Amino acid sequence: MQKHNSIINAHLVILIAVISLFITSSPTLSKEPKVIGKFGDWQTYVRGEKKDRFCYIVSKPKKASLRSRRGDIFLMVWHRPATKEFNVVQVDAGYTYKKKSEVKLKVGSSEWTLFTRGGNAWALGKDDAAIVKAMRKGMRLTIRGTSSRNNPTTDTYSLKGVTAAHRAMNKACGRR
Question: Which residues contact 76 (CB under 8 A, 6 or more apart)?
């Protein structure tokens, strides 16, 4: 049994080394993000260069429930041209979502259902563009989710500056 554990530990060390090498050698993941600008309550960043470019806008909630018991909470929209992914809406809850739960994202009178994995939530691909369009026209966005401990949360984001931040992200990633 001891020999079996030693083999598993050796494989684990090799796996960690390979993952570390991948992360530090990936131009997109290894470089610090470059700040493009701050626009109202939103910031625009870019990582990597040319085809490995990753551009995103991000904001923290103005109001968050259970804030003291959570990690970093933020909402972001990103472009990754190399994989032809644009306007991807992503939420980081600062906690692990309840398994198989859904998150509700609301802008004005429009509401979308997001799927969860771990502490993140994403819109279904077909909804991303509609959410971003609503964000650019709206004033406030709310996110309702449920933690793995069954605690409901509601986070409220200001959309002040999101249009300018989104334009800057588009420019940084070569989109109109």
Answer: 56, 57, 58, 59, 89, 90, 92
Q: How confident is the model at residue 15 (pLDDT cuts 50, 70, 90)?
A: very low
Please state, in angstroms and as integers, the Cα–Cα distance from residue 126 to each residue in 119, 154, 176, following that order: 22, 24, 20
Q: What is the CA radius of gyration of the chain?
A: 19
Q: Sort 12 into a burial class: Cβ within 10 Å, 0-12 / 13-18 / 19+.
A: exposed
* Percentage above 70 pLDDT, the chain: 83
Angle (CA) 134-118-65 rounded to 5° is: 60
Place of tokens 């969860």: 116
Q: CA 114 to CA 155: how far, in whole Å? A: 14
User: Could you give all domains of the chain from N- to C-terminal order, each with its CATH number?
Assistant: 34-173 (2.60.40.1880)
The number of C-alpha atoms within 13 Å of 142 and in the hemisphere containing its C-beta is 10
| Cβ–Cβ under 8 Å, residues 44 and 56 | yes
Q: What is the DSSP letter of 68?
A: G
